[in-house]
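Look at a sample.

——
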Amino acid sequence: MRELRLLPLLAALAAIPASAAGVAVTVKSPMAPPAWALLERELLRYNSQACERFAEKYVDERGYLLHTIRWGTLDGPDDAIETFFNWTLLHALGGSDKVLELYKKAQEGHWKQYNELRTKLTTLAENGAYYKEFITQSDWFHTGEGMRAFFLLGLSEPNNELYRQRMKRFAGMYMNEDPEAPNYDPEKRLIKSIWNGSKGPMLRKATVYDWVGDPVPGSFHLLHNPAGRSKLLDMKTYYPKMLAHCTEYLDSVGDNFLNLAATNLGINAWMLTHEKKYRDWVLEYVGAWKERTAACGGNIPSNVGLDGKPGGEHNGQWWKGTYGWNFTIFDGEIEKIAHRNYLTAASWLGFANALLLTGDQSYVDVLRRQMDNIYAQKKVENGKVLLPRMYGDPRGYKYNGAPQWYEYAEEPYGDRLTEIYLWSMKRSDLERVPIKGWIAFLEGQDPEYPVKALQADFAHVRRRMELMREDPTSADTRLADYLLGVVPPATNTLVNLTLGGYFANGRIWQLHSRFRYFDPVRRRAGLPEDVGALVEKLSAEAATLALVNLSPVEARTVVVQAGGFGEHQFESVAIEGKTTPVNSPVLTVRLEPGAGSRLEFKMTRYKNPPTLAHPWDRGWYGKN
């Protein structure tokens, strides 16, 4: 009988080309089920179940999210689909196939639902929020929020032809392949406006109605308001406050550092198709920003004029512009000055995408130099290091007539510093990183962290399910952003512990990790059934991974990949004192029933071109 059960496994392994499967090793040593592995498996299971319960309550048979639709960046289309922001990631980690099915239903329903929207106070959604399945015009802080799940769908379904077509079409909107979307100036190497999309760039000042949209009748639980989500507010009464929120958000023309998030389209199109033009465009555009940053003394400018010069739309003041270094405004909704520099929301992403494509650490150098400039302005008060968040005319502060650094805070860049370290793996970069949580675990300072963090995620899911059960709202009192505080799955800890990856609190994602896993029997992404993984240590040229098969009955086989996209290379692996050469981006590991071990890899980072292809489809892998 055991031989019969192994037949599907053996057939699946036989079907994997040698070039894709790489070296195969077998782990036979028994391992008592670790608490972290049991928690990982249960978290994957309960995350998946929670998504199903959420969809049962909040998504109808058409895939429509049950809420009141509106145009706007406060509670509009980007927030509605952002509700599902980590569902595709959950599947790629090993969540249920049902989660992926529900996301795709919701995504298709979302496009249809928001194409029924009509606005009168702005032309942006007068015929629907989307055109050709892409937002008509918006800024990439919000466009990127709404596309997080879509960007990561390729991890699970790289052979989905419709997904490929869409990604290529969307990328083409930033390469002037669509005459209705001339967003890009290839001569100046810039995106022409902070407002861009399927209807092209906005080459005028925005209006508050572009940002806020039309009011809708009724009372709502408004997430964006000082009173909090629990209070019902009449839209007619509160609408002037919403307009007042955006009265200073009107500068639009010229490139903006948020537009670096558009490189997610290009890199994903390239990893799906390997068509050279997508890679070339990403590197051309990021290269232009690299040059502009150098011209500003290592500071990433927040506006670039249509002439291609930093500060070109603001008399040479590179720090000006919506969401820029000097975006200190009076927010009429909260009736006080607010500081909203969104430098890190997309610029880190753009330079990191170029690193993925090339392995060139000079892109990380740009980000490090930016932090050097910020650290050069640090203050120490009561033993705490304070860093500036803003630069320019310090509204609300004493002004000496010259641009200056201001709005100091403690550890405002912890996530960004962590990313710089993980991309460079330089110990000098680690010196600036707060050594706590996951980083402390990797440094051997908090061995209990995996169990504590996974338990915290269980508590998160429980709290969200409780909110869902007790939710007092109905579709006619919910706007798009409300459910962001209810949607249950927790994935960040699983990314840290199983992949050695890191998703910061920034809103726009690309997977950067040391490992990824595939199930060769079910031919899908994610950890196979019963398998737990724990990344214990990372360095520039090595990584330590614990793998365990929790099943005492069945053997399990997992394909381990070096990097989220196979961009790294395993040189060798040591298991229980025996070293095996690998020389491949993948390693096939058979885990006997109840077996587990620590795998110590020697590896070269960023050696291979990144790809979304699964190992068994990688016949072209490594070809230029």
In short: The first strand starts at residue 23 and ends at 27. The longest helix spans residues 35-58. Confidence is low (pLDDT under 50) at residues 1-20, 620-624.
